[in-house]
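This part of the workshop introduces the protein records we will be handling. A learned vocabulary of local backbone shapes supplies the integers on the structure line. Getting from the letters to the tokens is the skill we practise here. As an example, a complete record with its sequence and its structure tokens follows.
=====
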Amino acid sequence: MTSSTAQTDPTIIIALDLPTQDAAESFLAGFPWEKRPFLKVGMQLFYATGPTWVASLKERGYPVFLDLKLHDIPHTVYHAVKSVANLGVDMLTLHAGGGVSMMAAAREAAEVAGADTMRLVGVTQLTSNDQRTMNEEIGIPGTVEDCVRRYAGLVAQAGLHGIVCSGWEVPMVKQAMREAGTEGIAVVPGIRPQGVASDDQKRVMTPEQAIQNGADYLVMGRAILRADDPVRVYEQIQQDITKVRRI
């Protein structure tokens, strides 16, 4: 499998949280061809468009993060990952709560399929969850940080490439992975520029804060999708991130 490289710094992954293929194509039409931003296709859009459209994004040179949050028995996840590998996507999510055997099966499937450039990342706790939700509704005791740290260790044990976590948890997650004997990337959703509403997210952070905390990729949807000039907002955030990295 081959993977195209974005023509701009791929730190920002634009979440195409849109209902239809037409809406997604209309949004992408506003970006100059040479930019080809890193795109996240989540469940809503994937279920609406199917795998053929995702494959077409790759054919057109877009890096693609397929955010399906796979969580099933190891056998099912193994075959799901083999199917996804055929699309040539650059990144795929699994729920770390599925356990080491499930995540290891995903890694094995990617290896068997020859998907050497597809990064598998484990979702720890959704950024819409807080401690009350985790303790009282889901039934997991302890703090969110305790759970995230434990899941990070499981992700490392399974041999995945990194973690999806909030910006606040990046240093802890990377330390937990190092303690488990590996280095991993941190993919951070729940990013909101200063002054932008947090909506249904609870553990949010600004782009600058997340980069300072060690995030490798920032997933941003509504702040860019809802902007009057999405390209200008995207470019401004990229510039702000570059300044932080130079400090």
